[in-house]
Amino acid sequence: MREEGQISAYQAMGYQVSIVLATAILFVPAITAQYARQDAWLSLVLAYLFGSLQVFVATKLALKFPRETVIQYAPRVAGKILGKVIGFIYIFYFFYVAYFVQREFEALMSAAYLPQTPIIVVIIMLTLLAAYVLYGGLEVLCRVNAIILAVALFGLLLIFLLIVKDIEFTRFLPFLENGVGPVVLGAVVPGGWFGETAVILMLLPFIGNQGKTLKTSLLAVTILFVVMEMVVIGAVGIMGPNETGRFLYPTFNIARRVTIEALPILERQDAMFMMIWVAGMLMKLSTFFYAGTLGLAQWLNLRSYRILILPAGAVMTALGMQAWENIVELKSFSGEVFPLTIIFVNFMLTGFLYLLTFLKPKSLQGAS
Amino acid sequence: MRRRLTKKLMDLLARSKKSVVQPVDGKQDLGRTETRVWEPAELERIPLSPDLQVNITRLKEVFDTNPDFIVREFDIAGGRARAALVFIKDLVERSLVGHNVLKSLMLDYRPREPNGRPLWEDMKRVAVTAGTVKEITNLRQAVEGILEANAVLFLDGEATGLVMEAEGFEKRPVGQPETEAVVRGPREGFVECLAVNITMLRRWLKSPNLQFENMFFGRVTRTRVALAYIKGLVDPGLVDEVRRRLRRIDIDGVFESNYLETMLRDSPYSPFPQMIATERPDKVAANLLDGRVAILTEGTPFVLVLPAGLVALMQSPEDYYHFGHLGSFIRLLRWMAFGISLLLPSLYVAVTTFHQEMLPTRLLLNIVASREGVPLPAVLEALLMEVAFEVLREAGVRLPRAIGQAVSIVGVLVIGDAAVTAGLVSPQMVIVVAFTGITSFLAPAFDLAISIRLLRFPVMLMAGTLGLFGVISGVLAIFIHLAGLRSFGVPYLAGLVPFHSTDWKDILVRFPMWTMRRRPAELAKQNRYRMAPNLKPGPARDNHKKE
Which of B502, B185, B447 is nearest to B330 (CA)? Predict the structure, then answer.
């Protein structure tokens, strides 16, 4: 199945950045600071290396099959039945991330902005928007993403510049207080998150200039690293590791702190932050929703994924509603379970397939 | 199945019709009196007869009892041959007919004898003084020639006729474009007459490569439409695509270019205009130079220019007629107004209803105090005011000019002052709605202003139910829609996404002329540069050394 339209490697990079950023920016500072405390910035360096490794393996694997997605070649690489199972795991993983995103989105929205609105309204709203993107196809996803990412990065930079005066570097001392162990532990979560860039496995066949994909994928992780460093240093530097670890959404709290004495109209502008963040979440949801429905359509040998959009969206929403009781459960889940599951898929499973391609070079035939 | 059946039926019907209209070849059929309807296809099958009387009778049959249909029979060359001139009285310029045809044929024409030329050829060469003539061979051409304000000449013994240009009817003089006034720049606007409009374009673009293609639309109206483009600049694929889409159109009447526009669009349900409709010849000429195609329609001063994206719709010719700083300033202002006219009422509703903490405390207290007596929630208040504004605006357009002023004064007093005093709306809301209304007039393309006007209402409803989240959802939905939209294959947001850095010189601001060397990236792909390099002006450096 060939999806109409082509994107460029840089547009794919845009996705890779925005899909990780949208959620990581909220959760990662708190979780990393819980483990690594004032050395959270160091954890991010480790996470960066780990994330680069993951995306490197994924891109290498994808480049071996330039015309197919992982769902299509997995049966050839791993054998018919095992391949289908692996394909299904990938598909489930995409939907799993998608409904996790739905729920994360709802968590912040209902906690901070719409406490009296039933959460299902908020979720359905976002899912419908994502479905609208999916009906448009990959090109639309790309173009919307380019605009949103530009606005979001600009907004983040602005927030960072406004708060940089409040950062106290003494908060980063003492260096390596409890040894290397906590730093490594703190790297697991952001490392897993950075690994989400492996979604390139589904996007690669639609990229025009595939030769650049490896470079742009690594560049995507680098951009993510820089932005996340900015956020973590901002959060720990302003609030200290204790407070950062205790808040649900430290980034959000930073955004709330932005004040300019001369311009009172700019005070308490966290709603502006929300608007940008909603856009980012929409991109993340659409990308995984897209990868999931496209994968499912290929798994079932359908001609078009469009027929699956609404049913898949409905199932996803239902799963998202029942999977977590409340926001506390969601947070502990996103710190303890979620990173491991996505590392399992993005790193272990992808690495496994990559190794298999060396053992069964025959499977490469037919992939021209 | 059903389709096949209907097709069969249609075939049968067509065949039965055919059998009624035997191609007439002489005198039979002449005495028929019953009224009948003539289809162009039928007329085309009837060739002109060498017998003058037969031709005249047939035309009289076609035009039936129309009193303005004139057949003037006369003799030429001293009674050597009979001839007839056929025309519609009020469509032709009578002095032209009298002078160019009747006088020269009846009085002045003396066939030179003996010369080998047949009379018809000789007459055409020597006696017919009309500039544009065309020979025709069948009845359809004759009928259409007559209806298009020409005079048709028949000669006894000839199975051909001569269509002569004799057009003469009242036209509105060229005036200022009503909807697109400028402070500096040409003040000439298109008119209803296609010929005049084509002349204006020709005067702007004196190139043989400026190509016009004539087409006719409307089974009954037979509206003339001209497709214009510049060869070598325009993408030939684009012209083919426009032709292909135009060819599909089969409709009984075309009264305005919008009839064509709605049938040519890429996404018919989109609220956004996918072509520029303009009354300004200079704008059309400039767009043709960018590699676009124009569609001129007889009977309307609005010319369609395509393909058009958001960027092109936000450009006004005046941006280039003022010097760069002002042009850029106006452009920025316009984008801002674009955002305000879409979002201001929604943002006001969302912030006052859901996010009061965003306002500085004093302003908040102010708003709360003035809203104290207002019986409606903010979103209803906003909707009410917007509707009132739209009603006034529409009334202002329709009402006779003398009453219009009275209505606008009453309107201003009623919705502006009395409503506030009566405590029905808050003064802040009046400011918001009035300002929004004014900003919507900044859009250079009237169509774009209309889409924004329409979209304002759903976004307002979203703001009233979900606050800023509703607003951003609405904005995102519009964005997604625009990102998927195309105008004749060109992405609607071209320049922004897909990103073209050279186009950015002419999006948010207007760079100086000499930096905009390239035409828009998605158009004119085979002819990119519009000017020589290094045109930046300045004092010549060598002169200083010499002096």
Answer: B185
Distance from CA of B70 to the nearest CA of A (A): 60
Q: Which of the pair, B42 or A264, is modelled with greater confidence?
A: B42
The answer to whether B473 contacts A114, with C-beta atoms less than 8 Å apart, is no
State the pTM of this model.
Answer: 0.86
Between chains, do B358 and A269 touch, taking CB under 8 Å as contact? yes
Chain A positions in Cβ-Cβ contact with residue B476 (cut-off 8 Å) = 129, 144, 278-279, 282
A 160-189 residues inside an 8 A Cβ radius of B: none
A368 assigned to some structural domain: no
> Does A136 reach chain B within 8 Å, measured CB to CB?
yes
CA distances from residue B514 to A63, A354, A364, B502, B526 in whole angstroms, order as listed? 44, 54, 53, 13, 20
In this structure, how many other beta carbons lie within 10 angstroms of the beta carbon of residue B454? 11
Is A367 within a domain?
A: no
* Cβ contacts of B495 on chain A, cutoff 8 Å: none
Distances (CA, A) of B407 to B181, B414, B433, B451: 24, 10, 18, 26
Q: What angle do CA A131, A137, A143 make, to 5 degrees?
A: 100
Give the dihedral of Cα atoms B180, B181, B183, B188; nearest 10 deg.
100
What is the CB neighbour count within 10 angstroms for residue B521?
16
Q: Count of CB atoms within 10 A of residue B413's CB?
A: 11
| Chain A contacts in chain B segment 16-55 (CB below 8 A) | none
Contact call for A267 and B360, based on CB within 8 A? yes
* Least CB–CB distance from A109: residue in B355, B469, B480: B469
Low pLDDT (below 50) residues in chain B: 17-31, 546-547
Buried b or exposed e, range B249-273, using 16+ CB within 10 angstroms: eeeeebeebbbbbebbbbeeebebb
CA A334 to chain centre: 12
Please choose, from the candidates B469, B442, B475, B441, the residue with its C-alpha nearest in 3D space to the C-alpha of residue B456: B475
Q: What is the pLDDT of residue B118?
A: 79
Domain encompassing residue A82: 9-355
Q: What is the pLDDT of residue B13?
A: 56
At residue B7, the pLDDT reads 67
Number of domains in chain A: 1
Contacts of B499 in chain A (CB under 8 A): 146
Nearest to B483 among A121, A144, A267 (CB): A144
- B151: exposed, middle or buried (C-beta count within 10 Å: 0-12, 13-18, 19+)? buried
Contact across the interface for A125 and B496, Cβ inside 8 Å: no
Residue for token pair 């009035």: B434
* C-beta atoms of A278 and B466 within 8 A: no
Place of tokens 């059998």: B19
pLDDT given at position B342: 93
pLDDT at A30 over 50: yes
Put simply, whether B177 touches A (Cβ < 8 Å) is no
| CATH, residue A188 | 1.20.1740.10
- DSSP assignment of A223-239, as one string? HHHHHHHHHHHHHHHHH
Cα–Cα distance between B146 and B140 in angstroms, integer? Answer: 10
For B203, B204, B208, B303, B325, the CA distances from B198, given in Å and listed in that order, are: 9, 10, 14, 11, 34
Cis status, amide bond into B114, omega within 30 of 0? yes
Is residue A165, in this structure, part of any structural domain at all?
A: yes
Structural domain includes residue A340: yes
Compare all CA atoms of chain A with the CA of B469 and give the residue at the minimum distance: A275
Q: How far is B358 from chain A (nearest CA, A)?
A: 6
User: A85 and chain B: CB distance < 8 Å anywhere?
Assistant: no
Is residue B46 within 8 Å of B18, Cβ to Cβ? no
Does B360 lie at the interface with A, CB-CB under 8 angstroms? yes
Q: Which of B360, B468, B496 is facing A275, going by the closest CB pair?
A: B468
